Amino acid sequence: LMTRWPQLQRVIAFILFLLMMQVALGISNVLLSRPFVIAIFHNLTAACLLLAIVFFNICIFRADEHMRMPA
Asked: Quick check: 29 and 22 in contact, CB under 8 A?
């Protein structure tokens, strides 16, 4: 599946990037006693992560439908 749809690899890489950002911002919130700007970026990253995961699920669903179609 991954070799046939390189778009999925880009989406997975973007999800991993957002996940690392989410963890880093979360740790920064704790260590710096939750500065307002970091908290906003933490929430924004969470929203982007959610959208990226939904997009990834849509891509997988469409790829699965495409694989089931008779040739």
From this structure: no
Residue 33, class by beta-carbon neighbours within 10 Å (0-12 exposed, 13-18 middle, 19+ buried)?
Answer: exposed
Burial of 61 (0-12, 13-18, 19+ CB in 10 A): exposed
Q: Are 56 and 18 in contact (CB under 8 A)?
A: no
Residue with tokens 């439908």, as numbered in its chain: 65
DSSP code per residue over 11-67:
HHHHHHHHHHHHHHHHHHHHHTT--HHHHHHHHHHHHHHHHHHHHHHHHHHHHHHHH
pLDDT above 80 (res 70): no
pLDDT bucket at 62, cuts 50 / 70 / 90 = confident
Residue labelled with tokens 């996940």: 19
